[in-house]
Amino acid sequence: MSSEASRPVPRPGILEIDAYVPGRSKAPAGVKLHKLSSNESPLGASPAAIEAFRAIADKLELYPDGSSTALREAIAAMHGLNPANIVCGNGSDDLLELITKAYIGPGDEGIYTEFGFLVYKIAILAAGGVPVVAKETDCTASVDAILEKVTPRTKVVFLANPNNPTGTYLTSSDVKRLQAGLPPHVLLVLDAAYAEYVRRNDYASGIELVSETENVVMTRTFSKIHGLAALRIGWMYGPAHVVDAINRIRGPFNVSAAAIAAGTEAIRDRAFIEQAVAHNNEWLEIVTREIEALGLKVTPSVANFVLIHFPEEKGRTAGDADEFLVARGLVLRQVSSYGLPQCLRMTIGTEEANRAVIAALKDFLSGAGS
Ligand SMILES: *Cc1c(COP(=O)(O)O)cnc(C)c1O
């Protein structure tokens, strides 16, 4: 017997994990809540997806299709892919964890960037791996900084592109340079959760790079543009050998029947997707411009949220602003856990919510009582 422990003890690394804290969703009693803390869609979900979800209520005794065939085929048709190279998951978090579990063992290193999505660190530690952080420049991932962190123990590099919570992105040529600089045994995971929102000619979600190489996978989600966060649907596109590994370890029914049905309709509803993109495009620009006009720095974002920087002066900090906004039912996201205590992240909301935040920040900065 190797252990003297008086009760079961988790594997090394597990207790180093700070559990992921989701965006808050409470406003004071009697105040209308605008939840802008989790990058959820202000437009809800496609009516066709909602109808498909309802229809499942009559068949709850049946196991779902364990291969999510209809969903994979609908995704493949939308993006011009081979459905055999797609795996669906219980949210893209599920896939990020499975990828980590498949490629990182005790002592192996996983790299992510300074302000990168926190799920990567959690997944690496949970697998017994060593999280390695690459510095960013101006809240943007740096290809050189990532490549400098590569060692013989490196197994996976995670890049959220665009990144949450910064909203910044790497161009497709930068991502290509990153892939080209990695040893062939290192898996590059491109987390493109916000790809649909990006309106830049020099951006690519990674589909091409996956097709052309053997060490890149791209993950996507139905939680953001499709407004289906409650259902937990994600997918990955990867080379056959990675797909094969993930299919061996995923839960046999890791996507629910309701998720398959609703997701299949959601991805076919192009008009709805375009509407969501147009709304975001319009309001991302207005929100950025108006908040900058108040004298606050906003990191340029290509996603459905903005990172707002506050002064470190007493009474005007991000924490003070958060308190002021919450009192008005405006719940943004504190991002201290990302090492950004001076910032709040605001999801682009409805017109009403966006205008309310702009007005409240104006009052906050001019010292009007809360
Ligand atoms: C929201 C988000 C996801 C999506 O996670 P789901 O599990 O699919 O809801 C993935 N990556 C990043 C960077 C995100 O911000």
Automatic annotation (TrEMBL):
It catalyses: L-histidinol phosphate + 2-oxoglutarate = 3-(imidazol-4-yl)-2-oxopropyl phosphate + L-glutamate. Its EC number is 2.6.1.9. Belongs to the class-II pyridoxal-phosphate-dependent aminotransferase family. Histidinol-phosphate aminotransferase subfamily. Keywords: Amino-acid biosynthesis, Aminotransferase, Histidine biosynthesis, Pyridoxal phosphate, Transferase. Residues 34-361 form the Aminotransferase class I/classII large domain. Homodimer. The gene is hisC2. The modification N6-(pyridoxal phosphate)lysine is found at residue 224. Pathway: Amino-acid biosynthesis; L-histidine biosynthesis; L-histidine from 5-phospho-alpha-D-ribose 1-diphosphate: step 7/9. It is an enzyme of class 2 (transferase). This is Histidinol-phosphate aminotransferase.
